[in-house]
Amino acid sequence: MENRPQWGSRAGFIMAAVGSAIGLGNIWRFPAVAYENGGGAFFFPYLFALLTAGIPLLIMEFTIGHKYRGSAPLSYARLSKKYEWLGWWQVAISFVISTYYAVIIAWAMSFAGFSFNLKWGDDPNGFLFGEYLKLSETPGDIGGIVPGVFIPLVIVWAVTLGILFKGIKKGIEIANKIFIPVLVVLFLIIVVRALTLDGAIAGLDAFFKPNWEMIADPKVWVAAYGQIFFSLSIGFAIMVTYSSYLPKKTDLTNSAFITGFANSGFELLAGIGVFAALGFMAAQQGVGINEVVSSGVGLAFVVFPQIINEFPALNGLFGSFFFICLTLAGLTSLISIVETFVAGVQDKFNVSRNKAVLVGGGLSAVISILFATQGGLYFLDAADYFINQFGVALAGLVQVVIVGWVLKELKNLQNHADVVSDIKLGAWWKVCLIGITPIVLGYMMIQNIITNVKDNYEGYPTSFLLYAGWGVAIAALIMGFVFMAIKKNETQTKLTIPNDKEVSQ
C-alpha cells in the first residue's frame, strides 16, 4: 500500500479547500458580476448554480481523488488508462495560471506597502500603468523587467515554495490555518468600516436591489454558472489532488457543502464591502453608483486606491488591510494551484517532494518573470482570459462528459461517497452532472467561441492573440497528451486502489 501524505485533520483539509476557492476573483469579480446581472435577483440563479453544478462537481472531484488516491493524472489513469491526458491537461492549465497569478499577488504586496503613504497620489490609474507597471504601448512588446514587480514576485515565490517544501500537514495545512482566519478578520474590519461611510447604504441598495426582469435572460444564468465554476477551483486538478491526501474515513459530501457555502459566503461579504465602498466613492464624487462600478485589475488597483484617498481617517491603514487581504487570498489559491503539478510530477516520475517542488515550482517561477516585464500586463490579460474560457471551462465540460457519459462512473463514485458520508447522494447528483452541468457548460463554450471568433478579445491584434491567448490554451491541451505519452514509472503501477469496502472499514 502506498505511503501517501495526509492532512492532519478534516478541518485542515476544508480550510485548504476553502483557501483554494477563495481567491482574487471573490473580491474583484463577484461584486460586479452580481451587480451587472440583476443585483439581488442574481442570487437566485447563483444559488441554483451552486447547488446544481458547483457542489455536485466538488463532490465528484473530492470522490475521484479520495477513491483513487493520486494526483489528477494518476487518479484519471486509475479510472481509465486512456484518460490520463485529462489529468495532465488540467495540471497544465494550473501551471499556466500559476505563472501569472503570482505576479498579481506581487502587485497586491507592493500596493500594501504603497498604502501607508498613498504613493499612488491623486492619479492611481496613471500610477499603476505608468509609474508602477511601466506598461509598454504595444501588446507583444516585452520590454525590460520592472524591478518594482520583480522583487515582490521573488518574495511571493519564496513564500509559496517554502510552504510547499514543508509538505501537506506541516506546510499547506498550517499556512491555510493561519492565512484564512487572518484574511477573514481583516476583511471583516474593512467591511465594518466601509458600512459606516457616507453613501454606503446607497451602494448596498445598488448591489442588493433586485432587477427581476433579468432573471429571464439566459446570459444571467450563464453568468451565474460561470461565476460558480471559476470561483470554486473546479476543473483544474486542485480538488482531486487535495482530496487524495484525505484519510479513508472522511465525510466527502459534507466537506463539499461546507467548502461551497464558505466560498459563497465570502463572495457575499466581498460584495457588501466593495459596494459600501463604491457607494462612498460615488457620494464623494457626486455621481451615480453605475459610474464607479468596476472589476478585476481596475477595481483593485485603480478604484480602491481612489476610495482609500477619500477615506476620512486612517486611510493608509485600511488601504494596507485591503491589499494584505488580496495578498492572502491570492497566496492560498496559488499554493493549491502549484500543488497540482508538484503532485503530478511526484506520482509520474516517482521523485521526492522536494525535487518536484524545485522542478515544477521553479519552472513556473522562472516563466512568471515574463509577466514582470513592461509588456507583462498584456500577456497576463490574454493568457488569463483564454486559459479560463478555453482551458478551465472546457476541461470541466470534458471531465463531466468523460466521467458521466463515456465511462459511466457516477454510480461507482456515488457508492464510494455514500459509504463515508452522512449526506447520501440521491438522483439529483447524477441528474445535475449528466444533464444540467454539461448543457450549461456546453452553451457557455459555444457562446465563447462565437464571441471570440467574431471579435478579438479586448481588440488585441490577431497575431498577438494567436500565441499569447489561443496558443496558450491549445498548448495546455497538447501537453496533456505529451505527458501521458511519457512512460510511467513502473513503481506507480503497482499501487493498490482502495475499494469501497476497504474505505468503510
From TrEMBL:
Q: Does the keyword Transport apply?
A: yes
Q: What is its main location?
A: membrane
**Pfam families, per the entry:** SNF (PF00209)
Kindly list the residue ranges recorded as spanning the membrane: 12-31, 43-64, 85-109, 142-166, 178-204, 224-245, 257-283, 321-345, 357-380, 386-407, 427-446, 466-486
Q: Which InterPro entries match?
A: Na/ntran_symport, SNS_sf
PROSITE patterns in the record: NA_NEUROTRAN_SYMP_3
Q: How does it sit in the membrane?
A: Multi-pass membrane protein
The UniProt keyword set, sorted, is: Membrane, Transmembrane, Transmembrane helix, Transport
Q: Where in the cell is it found?
A: Membrane
UniProt protein name: Sodium-dependent transporter
